[in-house]
């Protein structure tokens, strides 16, 4: 296969970088032998839920995250709901508008409501100053922050803000299984942190979530909460959920945890390869991961300054699509502007988040992607930027419009 880049981007008739297509992510499925032994044991044992495999996953995760308690749940959304319920948070929850919708949904399902705050322009994680400002001026009974793309939040200043207002701090750590803040694993910050093991995340179980906490009483309540609120004698203490993780999911999850540290390191190397390749390109930057921190790079997201880059995000996405490269606008629209939250009347409160949300584009990265694939992806972005004016003109209705079926001239 000849994939040598021609001078022209595919949007202008050049050879696509990936004629067969490059998906946004490819789930790393554990090898059969990593899973089958455990599945056989589950079937022999006859316990499909509430068994030894979930307990083993919890123990393994607690070791990896360096926290005393991990409670496995059916998914991250239910985990966040149960944490808010267990902390008796029923008032407004200060959270970023720049997050996945499930962060806000969890608050609503827990009987609370979101109060949206800005993210920091550099890191795209919840801005501690704006969170504090929102707590003081709008009010809030908890703070829920997201480690966006696996970038650890500025946890020290968020904790200060929460402490000053006397409210609990909870983390949506869906993206951050394997992230570190100044060398310390994400998982032990705030009152609790909730990870996702859904297929698009870094360590899939099929579906699943992990709640990490240093608080023993909270962990005990959460174990009851995921089991309908039943402490064991069917005299339910509160209205819990069925949010158990099944034994079969735990078997897959355990296999996904093995080698996670190495895979996270590889993802970081891939992100560095991309950054090196596009170094100096005008109008392109990356969310800042603080010096000494580790991100899982659950997503590799570009922040595009449309004036300097010469193209806006939809045009860049179309031009990358012509190269065969799949992209997503994570997160656009931001949650505070989604239809589900319009009635809150907070749509116009976050101008910075709006601008950043319009500027982000996520490009492909997965745990077993090669550096060569990453280099070719970055080269395609650079090629498009080199021809930004022509690409823009072409997309505005020229000979190589966005809807033209662009095929490689040579294969
Ligand atoms: C995926 C995701 C969730 C939801 O996780 P599930 O395990 O699918 O419930 C929550 N928050 C963020 C930031 C996510 O990306």
Automatic annotation (TrEMBL):
SUPFAM superfamilies: PLP-dependent transferases. GO terms for molecular function: pyridoxal phosphate binding; transaminase activity. The keyword Transferase applies. The active site is at residue 201. It comes from the Bacteria. It holds the Pfam family DegT_DnrJ_EryC1. InterPro entries: DegT/StrS_aminotransferase, PyrdxlP-dep_Trfase, PyrdxlP-dep_Trfase_major, PyrdxlP-dep_Trfase_small. GO terms for biological process: polysaccharide biosynthetic process. The modification N6-(pyridoxal phosphate)lysine is found at residue 201. Keywords: Aminotransferase, Pyridoxal phosphate, Transferase. Belongs to the DegT/DnrJ/EryC1 family. PANTHER family: PROTEIN RV3402C (PTHR30244:SF9), TRANSAMINASE (PTHR30244). This is dTDP-4-dehydro-6-deoxyglucose aminotransferase.
């Amino acid at each position: 296969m000849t994939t040598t880049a021609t001078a022209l981007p595919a949007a202008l008739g050049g050879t696509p970088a990936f004629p067969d297509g490059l998906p946004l992510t490819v789930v790393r499925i554990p090898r059969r032998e990593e899973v089958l032994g455990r599945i056989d044991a589950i079937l022999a044992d006859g316990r499909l839920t509430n068994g030894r495999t979930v307990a083993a996953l919890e123990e393994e995760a607690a070791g990896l995250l360096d926290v005393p308690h991990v409670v496995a749940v059916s998914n991250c959304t239910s985990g966040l709901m149960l944490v808010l319920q267990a902390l008796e948070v029923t008032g407004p929850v200060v959270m970023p508008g720049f997050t996945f919708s499930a962060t806000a949904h969890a608050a609503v399902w827990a009987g609370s409501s979101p109060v949206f705050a800005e993210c920091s322009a550099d890191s795209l994680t919840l801005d501690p100053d704006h969170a504090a400002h929102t707590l003081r001026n709008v009010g809030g009974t908890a703070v829920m922050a997201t480690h966006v793309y696996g970038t650890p939040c500025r946890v020290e200043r968020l904790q200060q803000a929460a402490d000053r207002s006397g409210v609990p701090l909870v983390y949506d750590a869906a993206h951050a299984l394997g992230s570190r803040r100044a060398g310390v694993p994400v998982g032990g910050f705030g009152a609790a942190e909730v990870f996702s093991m859904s297929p698009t995340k870094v360590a899939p179980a099929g579906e699943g979530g992990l709640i990490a906490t240093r608080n023993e009483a909270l962990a005990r309540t959460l174990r009851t909460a995921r089991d309908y609120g039943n402490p064991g004698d069917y005299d339910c203490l509160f209205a819990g959920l069925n949010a158990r993780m099944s034994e079969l999911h735990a078997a897959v999850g355990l296999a996904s945890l093995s080698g996670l540290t190495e895979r996270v390191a590889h993802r970081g190397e891939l992100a560095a390869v991309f950054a090196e390749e596009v170094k100096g390109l005008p109008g392109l930057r990356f969310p800042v991961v603080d010096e000494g921190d580790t991100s899982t790079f659950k997503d590799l997201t570009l922040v595009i300054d449309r004036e300097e880059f010469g193209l806006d995000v939809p045009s860049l996405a179309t031009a990358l699509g012509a190269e065969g490269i799949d992209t997503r606008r994570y997160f656009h629209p931001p949650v505070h502007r989604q239809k589900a939250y319009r009635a809150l009347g907070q749509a116009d409160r976050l101008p910075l988040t709006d601008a950043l949300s319009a500027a982000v584009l996520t490009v492909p990265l997965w745990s077993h992607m090669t550096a060569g694939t990453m280099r070719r992806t970055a080269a395609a972005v650079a090629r498009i930027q080199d021809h930004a004016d022509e690409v823009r003109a072409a997309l505005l209705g020229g000979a190589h419009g966005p809807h033209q079926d662009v095929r490689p001239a040579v294969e």
